[in-house]
Structures are given as structure tokens and as C-alpha cells.
Specification:
This protein is mainly beta. Helices cover about 0% and strands about 65% of the residues. The radius of gyration is 13 Å and the shape is globular.
């Protein structure tokens, strides 16, 4: 990666998953040395066969305690 995110040490992990009406949602927590870490994102995607043809990333918010 280059640009802004290249300077951060990032890790991510899937914390939830569900399918609904042809859409799949994977809840992901991204951690690193950035303000607001750790942060929750929902990756919403649709498949055509075994390939993703549409992807939306929704910011959910910081999960810092």
C-alpha cells in the first residue's frame, strides 16, 4: 500500500458475518496506530458466481473501551 495508510501498522479481523437477500455483510475490526483505533467497519458485498461485483464499506465507529 502507498499513500496515507502506508504509514500505519494495521491489522484486521472479521468479527461477524451474515447473509440477507443476496447481500453479505462482514463486520471487521481494524486496529493500528491511528486515531480512533480500534475501528469497526461493515463490508457489504454482492456476488456474481464466486466474484464480488459490488462492495460498500460502511464506517460503524470506534470500538475503543
Amino acid at each position: 500500500m502507498t499513500g496515507t495508510v502506508a504509514g500505519y501498522k494495521l491489522t484486521s479481523g472479521v468479527v461477524s458475518g451474515k447473509a440477507h437477500g443476496g447481500e453479505f455483510v462482514a463486520g471487521v475490526v481494524v486496529s493500528g496506530d491511528f486515531p480512533g483505533s480500534p475501528y469497526r467497519l461493515d463490508y457489504r458485498f454482492k456476488l456474481a458466481g464466486n466474484k464480488i461485483y459490488e462492495l460498500t464499506i460502511d464506517p460503524i465507529g470506534s470500538v475503543a473501551a
